Structures are given as C-alpha cells and as structure tokens.
Amino acid sequence: MAEIINMPRLSDTMEEGTVAKWFKKVGDTVKEGEILAEIETDKATMEFESFNEGHLLHIGIQEGGTAPVDTLLAIIGEKGEDISALISGGETPSPAVEKVAVQENQSEVPSAPVSSEIPEGIEIITMPRLSDTMEEGTVAKWNKKVGDTVKEGDILAEIETDKATMEFESFYQGTLLHIGLNEGESAPVDSVLAIIGKKGTDISGVIASQAQPKAAATKADPAPVVSAPKVESVPEVKVAPTAAPVVKSTSNGRIVASPLAKKLASEKGIDLARVQGSGDHGRIVKKDIDNYQPQVGGGVKAFAPSGTESVTVIANSQMRKTIAKRLSASKFTAPHYYLGVEFDMDNAIAFRAQYNSIPDTKISFNDIVVKAVALALKQHPQVNAKWEDNQITQHHHVHVGVAVAVEDGLVVPVVKFTDEQSLPQIGAAVKDYAIRARDKKLKPEEMEGSTFTISNLGMFGIQEFTSIINQPNGAILSVGAIVQKPVVKEGAIVVGNTMKLTLACDHRVVDGATGAQFLLTLRAFVENPLTMVV
C-alpha cells in the first residue's frame, strides 16, 4: 500500500524546508534506510532517509522548492499503484483534470447574457494607478453624483492610494451615468470606477459586460478553470488604458496637471507647458515638478546625472528567514543594554606565543576568550541565565555558543561544558564546527542548548561592535580586534596592545552591576591567562 512521506521537522525551530537535492527519481526502487533527499532547514542541510521501501511513485516538491512541515513530499508504494486519490487528498481531482473536464464541456460554466448593443460615445473610467506601488484604491469621496454634468478637468473623486489621498480629474465630458464604487469601497487598479456618456443612454449592457469576467471567476471557484467562451469587447467602448501615451494638453489646449502640481509650479515659477507629465494620460504630477530641469542658454539642458538603475534579487533562504524572525523577536522583546570594556592584551599575546611553542599545539585568541568566559560564568550564574515568563533560570553548567558566519547568514554551534575543556580542546571543537557549518553539515543538536554566546569579528579588523542577544540566552559578548596603540603604564606612555569587548545584556535577567562584576572577573582571566591553566 502506498505511503505518504511528508516534509519532516528536522529541528525544533523548523517551520518549512527546501528540497536541496533528490537522490531518487520517480520510478526508482527505494529501500528502507536509503537517502531520499537533502533537505535545507533553518539551521543546516540534512540528509533525509526513507523509512519505507517500494517504488518512488510521486515527488511533491521539486529541487529548490519550499514547503511547510507536513506538506506532501513524496509517495512510495508498489509499482503501478493508483495514487491519484492520495495526490489530490482523496477529495477532488487535480487542477489539470478539472481543467480538461471544463474544456470538454464548457456549458458547465454558463455566462451571463451580455448585450452586444453598446451605444457609441460611452467612456469607461477605470481605477487609475496614482503611484508606482499602488495596487488598489479606495474612493474617499465623490465630487459628482449620477446624473451630474462632467466637464473635462473637473475633479470626479478623491482616491486614497497606498501613499496619499489624491484628487482624480476627468479627461472626458458628458453626464455621469454610473458609479462603480461607492465611497469607502476599494478595488484593484483598472477596475470600473465610473461611466460617462450622453444623458439618457442605456448602459445596462456595458455594466454587464464589465462584470462578466468577475462572474465567470465566481462560477469557477474555488479552483481556477477555463471560463466560458470569451465575449469580444465592442469597439465603441473606449477603456482608458493604464499606460496611456504621453500628451501635454487636451484637445482644447488645456494642460493636464494635478492641483498640487499646479500649486508647486506656480510657487517655483515653472511653465507647465515645458513639463513632461508622467501620470495617466500625460498628467503632470508632483514628482514631475520636483524633477523638472530647466533649459539654459543655447537650448542646452542643465546637467543632470544619468545612469542605469539595477538591482540583484536574492531569494531568502530558510536560514535567513529564521535569523530575521529570531533576531527581530529578541531585539523587540528583550530590553538590551550594553557594557563596553577595553582589555590589556600584552600578557595574552605572550601567553599564546609560549603555549603555541609546544609541539602540535595551536590556540587562538578566540580560544582564550571562550575559556575565560566559561570560567567567569561559573562564578556569575546570574549572567549564565535566561528569562522565562514566570521565572529566571540560572544555569550551573556552561555551554558557550560561538557565532560562525556562513554564506546564508549566521549559525551558533555550542561548545558543551566549556569550562571543563582545555584550550586545545576548545580550539579543535570551534574549528571543527566552523568547517562543518560552512558546509551545512552541523547536526541540530550541535546548535542547541547554549547558555551564553560569543560573537567575534576581530579577525575582520572590527574594533568594536554590539550584538543582538541570541535568545533564550540572557547575554552575548562581542569581541573586537587586538589593536596596537599608545597606552599609559606606570605613568609612562608606551606601546601596548588592547582589545575592546561589549557585553549586551537582557535587563530582565542581568542588572547593570551584575554585568559589570562579570566583566571584572573576565578581565582578570584574559589579562592574566596563566590563571586559567593553573
């Protein structure tokens, strides 16, 4: 019997996954334990093995496709088995089947009767696109009512867009025969807003023809299908296009400009006849006045920089989405405050050089900081803590998370029981995590359980920065570069080596004095690293 394989939840925070690679194709034999696919989660790319055996009958998500947890990923069963009911959820046929059915019998989607007797002289006014990002508009106010005479240039209505409420004037004259949207109602750009024509004209057929596409879509709901035979539009109906050709004036010579544009032009002394309009039907709008470049002597325009605008669009990976969600939640829920210090690194530099003189031994300054932090946290469990709704939990074990930059963002592998490990052990663990993090081979359990986090950008030359707390931790330490600079020692100015660190604390968990005491203990270990190994 066929088995449905759903998108698995491969980490505690995973909400959706992306299929990075399929190792099987439809028709292949699948054995229990074989790797079906690689799934990209919010933390890593992981191999997903089959717990069933049979033939791969269906792939629900193609390579590069993303879907929520528990979405149909694949179906495994016996060769030739009918799985159409499983694919469609056992309720309705697939959209492709339904589409074919409607094509064979189009009479199942009856169309409303539409009159082909549409009188001449009818002008259909559609919802205008009044801004570059506008997708729909709301009629804030009508300045005319059905039956009123409309002159070219009259303000028909006030339209509320995504950016402002703007006056919308008529480019036609006649009688307002129909209003398609009442005040307060919204509709997409190009929807019927009004109809203007000769007084007494019967426009019932026009209204019905404009409503026809909407009626057909309603009949075909819920899944899109092929509609009834298309009713050709009648030539006499003139619909104002979205991108009309640019014109500078109307047939009577009047320049078409918005009231605000006219006001600004008057204030700036700009002749509207010299301005190229970018609005509907060449209408001059505010931005045309703002961007207007007057001509200088000899008919040569004043210099204006020119170039080609370009962008690169990068789809958000699952990791990037999760980073955005978690850091936003941390920044806006935890009251951050920051404590900055500067450590003398002369002893640490000498200590590292001597330690690395031991054969087959190599430690970094980051390893020294990680070890020092772990020992300081043992003495200050108030900092090694997290905020919970009804309590503060202080950890007496130390699991230090070390932030690692990867192509898609940032991961935080965790060095468990950091205080109990030697400097070489810490160095080996961090190096191994960094390599596997960049290859997306870290396991979810290797990125869970941190009680404190360290972010080090010193290797990039960054001297000082602040970090967002990696929840549920109560604090995070930002480590900068070691800098050689003049310092004062024993009353004399000498060349010294210093490093700046910034502790970001959740004020709900760590008070200012508590954070300061932690940094004093940390200073003692970093500036005298020998105390960490004796």
Mind explaining what this structure looks like?
- There is one protein chain.
- Helix content is 22%, strand content 27%.
- It has four domains: 3-91, RNA polymerase II/Efflux pump adaptor protein, barrel-sandwich hybrid domain (OB fold (Dihydrolipoamide Acetyltransferase, E2P)); 123-239, Beta Barrel (OB fold (Dihydrolipoamide Acetyltransferase, E2P)); 259-299, Irregular (Dihydrolipoamide Transferase), CATH 4.10.320.10; 318-532, Chloramphenicol acetyltransferase-like domain (Chloramphenicol Acetyltransferase, 2-Layer Sandwich).
- A hairpin with a 4-residue loop joins strand 12 (155-160) and strand 13 (165-169).
- The chain has ten helices and 27 strands.
- It has 534 residues and is α+β, with helices and mostly antiparallel strands.
Summarize the structure.
The chain is an alpha+beta fold. It has 10 helices and 27 strands.
Distance between the termini: 65 Å
CATH architecture of the largest domain: 2-Layer Sandwich
Structural class: alpha+beta
Biggest sheet architecture = 6 strands, mixed
What's the shape? flat
Name of the CATH class of the largest domain: Alpha Beta
User: Looking across the biggest beta sheet, what order are the strands in?
Assistant: 18-27-26-25-21-24
How many domains? 4
Looking at CATH, the homologous superfamily of the largest domain is Chloramphenicol acetyltransferase-like domain
Name the helicity range: 10-25%
Q: What is the C-alpha radius of gyration, as a whole number of Å?
A: 35 Å
Oligomer: single chain
**Mean pLDDT across residues:** 83
Which ranges are low-confidence, i.e. pLDDT below 50, for 5 or more consecutive residues?
90-116, 213-248
The name CATH uses for the topology of the largest domain is Chloramphenicol Acetyltransferase
Question: How many strands?
Answer: 27
Proportion of residues in β-strands: 25-35%
Query: What is the count of helical runs?
Result: 10
